[in-house]
Specification:
InterPro entries: Epimerase_deHydtase, GDP_fucose/colitose_synth, NAD(P)-bd_dom_sf. By secondary structure, the protein is of the alpha/beta class. It contains eleven helices and twelve strands.
Length: 316
């Protein structure tokens, strides 16, 4: 059972998802968080992971560590996205089980569903069709992680559960123009264009794909709900219940950042999957609802970006 003094290891605590999960755990009184940076425990190193679990014996493990990136990074570095994420999942799940963890929550991703599938996407759609090629390597690694959780549950009775988050955004994201996901990239691009008085901002692709965006703090509450109240091999979608056209997202980000110039779509950049809105019936049945609407979530993230990153990135 998850108690305030449970030894909870959050792998990936500096990232977008992991930092939000830690904020939620702390807000709910958890004082025994085990946190290690990348340099303290290299999760692709089997021996390092084994030594950490042997020494610390966490009771609960949240596996939010992953090599992640936007559509361009995924297409450019498939070897790393596949290999690094496979090794992280295999090492952490094995050591958590071997050292007696009570429960493990693995974060997969909505990109592991088939490229073309009925919307909103139900958990049962997994492995019913071909993947989106732009993020196939990442998706295959995440499917393997999910299957590891199911296999350890079946073979060893290990309480490993899987969450399928949609496209996340919020503080501690990577505001990188080339390697980042669409929301942090656009926030930075529109912000810098406004500051520089630039006449035009380029947005990748046709603008016609749809995406389901969830603030990372809503992911945090969802993960705690699952840790407390869910124990089954069926993965659980975590989404906003809604989606938005990338074109409309670009106009919304322009408005929030105060950019007043032109917006041009660049069809030479990939669109990726046409749509991936998650069906959230399963987690809604546990009483969870997202609390942060897209506009206020982007406004809050933009404030965070200006306070924490805008000065550094402006000089890059
Ligand atoms: P995806 O959900 O895996 O495709 O992840 P992304 O967040 O990288 O991209 C989402 C959508 O936003 C895709 O259709 C992209 O073509 C589009 N997009 C528009 N501008 C940008 C941008 O500056 N960066 C990224 N990453 N995507 C962009």
């Amino acid at each position: 059972m998850l108690l305030p003094d449970s030894r909870v290891y959050v792998a990936g605590h500096t990232g977008l998802a992991g930092s939000a999960i830690c904020r939620r755990l702390e807000a709910e009184g958890h004082r025994n968080l085990l946190l290690r940076t990348h340099t303290e425990v290299e999760l692709t190193d089997e021996g390092a992971v084994e030594r950490f679990f042997d020494a610390e014996k966490p009771s609960h493990v949240i596996l939010a560590a992953a090599k992640v990136g936007g559509i361009a990074a995924n297409a450019a570095f498939p070897a790393e996205f596949l290999s690094v994420n496979l090794r992280i999942a295999a090492n952490v799940i094995e050591s958590a089980w071997r050292h007696g963890a009570e429960k493990l929550l693995y974060l997969a991703s909505s990109c592991i569903y088939p490229r073309v599938t009925p919307q909103p996407i139900r958990e049962e759609a997994l492995l019913t069709g071909a993947l989106e090629p732009t993020n196939e390597a990442y998706a295959i690694a995440k499917i393997a992680g999910l299957k590891l959780c199911q296999a350890y549950r079946r073979q060893h009775g290990f309480d490993a559960i899987v969450a399928m988050p949609t496209n996340l955004y919020g503080p501690h994201d990577r505001f990188d123009l080339e390697a980042g996901h669409v929301l942090p990239s656009l926030l930075r691009r529109f912000h810098e264009a406004k500051e520089a008085g630039a006449p035009e901002v380029i947005v990748w692709g046709s603008g016609s794909p749809r995406r389901d965006f969830l603030h990372a703090d809503d992911l945090g509450t969802a993960c705690l709900t699952l840790l407390r109240d869910y124990s089954d091999e069926m993965p659980v979608n975590i989404g906003s219940g809604d989606d938005i056209l990338i074109r409309d997202l670009a106009f919304l980000v322009a408005e929030i950042t105060g950019y007043r110039g032109a917006i041009t779509f660049d069809p030479s950049r990939p669109d990726g999957t046409p749509e991936k809105r998650l069906d959230i019936t399963r987690i809604s049945g546990l009483g969870w609802r997202p609390a942060i609407d897209l506009r206020s979530g982007i406004e809050q993230t933009y404030r965070w970006y200006r306070e924490n990153c805008a000065r550094e990135t402006a000089t890059v």
